[in-house]
Amino acid sequence: MSDAWLDLLKDDPRPWLLEESNPTVRAATLVRLVGRAPDDPEVAAARAHAMRVDPIKGILDAMDPRGFWVKPGPGYAPKYSGTVWNLMFLEQLEADPGDPRIQAACRYVMSSTAVPTGGFGCSGSHIERLPPPSSVLHCLNGNLTRGLIRFGHLDDPRVQAAVDWAARAITGEEVTRWYAYTPGPGFACGINEGLPCAWGAVKEMRALAAIPSRRRTARVKRAIALGVEFLLSRDPAEADYPMGWGNTKPSGSWFKLGFPSGYVADVLQVLEVLAELGHGRDPRLEHSLAWLAGRQDARGRWANRYAYQGKTTVPIEAQGAPSKWVTLRACTVLRAAG
Fold this sequence. Notes:
2 strands, about 40% helix
């Protein structure tokens, strides 16, 4: 593995990322930045340790044995400690799919949010009934589909239906009815006045990127191609994607690199998913990569500017402090860019 990407850093953060005090980051760093295999004994030991300590332990300890958090139902509320948020955060923390509690949560989410027309719907109700088809949003569908795939449920019919819904909604193929939240193809979103939503695009691309390339259907491949071109149609560091309701300046949240990630996306997450899909070296990203490198401190570390502090089930990272997760994400992108 070439270490040329380290030339972009003011210092090597890997010793800090590999500290045993944060085993989730340690395991991911060993794989992403050191070159260890996912089944390497040291990686496996770190992943096992991560399941026994916070934040993963605290999140799972707070789960009802049936698989939900806070209250039954589709789990969108409360933000950001309800069921769907904890599942997506556990995926981002790379929790072990083999843990029975993870599988209980997956089963509950699929049974509580998968609408009959395909996709995972949004509802904060405590009533255990499926949300309506009109409640499927690109951002939530992408986040949940990604989590369920990473936790081993790609072959579940409800996940397959969510993947197909995403691909059809992106390409516009074989859609019999559009709804207010998804009024048309190409990431159109009612919350963005019917314009394409880049946050939703990032989340859906993360879901489709989680599908092994050999398992991607022709329609999924077409949807990925459209999503990649949409994300590359603007400079991610400018983030001037279509904005509804008279807005002329991008949301400031784009520029607050953070962890974990809910429905908001940041510049770094755009770069991450493009790299995951094999476009990390696209010349259109040159300015964005320079922008990213410019956000590091003198020790080669990035701060968490969007930590959801005080809002999650247990603390994950501190707002404004040097962040191991944001640093790992940034280094992964810079390494992929060569």
